[in-house]
Amino acid sequence: MSSTTSIPVIRRALGAQWENLHEIVQRHYAITPGESSRMVIRGNMSEVYHSHIAKLFLLPGRLFGALVPYKGRNIPTEVRNWTTAQDQRAMFWHRTLRFPGRSPVIFQSRMEHRRHDEIIEFVKFGMGIRMRISVEDSALIFRSIGYVWKIGGAALLIPNWLILGDAEIIEKGLSESEFFIDFNIIHPLFGKTFSYTGIFSIIEEGDTC
């Protein structure tokens, strides 16, 4: 049975700012932990980029189930989001990028509200990125404030600069049916280390039953 007090992860973190989001972005994040629901978006990454310095992090990143190891343009991409009746906290992600001539790249994670305007997105082995979110000109903005690695009962905090740098994600509505995603990681010494951009549409939404 779903919780009557549960609300979507992003809506909980944004509070009153949620009402200022573009309608298509609200729809993307409307699924609610504690309920069996799904959301599928599909589109093309116009560019997926990583710098030479970022290559040092690609192998360990893939071990944790994060990052995308290839560069490319016009990459067909599908993102599946869902929530379950059994989990009152998380929104789940399953991203599939199809680079020509290569096996599909899968990137899975779970996103939870932490406190106030902060969310955390976990990949494998307890590694997570902490982000503050806000609404600016009807767009949803994620800005990283560091990483955390949960090992047993301990939590190791890792600053942005020790990995790839400061991450920012912008998700902006373009119309009633399309939205734009722009993701950049900028290191204070090495400049842009990783980025992708793309336009997506919602193709499925509803209960998972």
Walk me through what this model shows.
The protein is mainly beta and 209 residues long. The chain has three helices and eleven strands; from the N terminus they run H-H-E-H-E-E-E-E-E-E-E-E-E-E. A ten-stranded antiparallel beta barrel has the order 1-2-3-4-5-6-7-9-10-11. Strand 7 and strand 8 form a beta hairpin. The two termini are 13 Å apart.
Q: Provide the residue-averaged pLDDT.
A: 92
Radius of gyration, whole Å:
17 Å
| DSSP, total strands | 11
> How far do the termini sit from each other?
13 Å
**β-sheet strand percentage:** over 45%
Tally of individual helices: 3
- The helix fraction, in percent, is 10-25%
Structural class: mainly beta
* Uncertain spans: none
Strand order of the largest sheet: 1-2-3-4-5-6-7-9-10-11
How can the largest sheet be summarized?
10 strands, antiparallel, barrel
Shape: globular
Output the helix-strand order.
HHEHEEEEEEEEEE
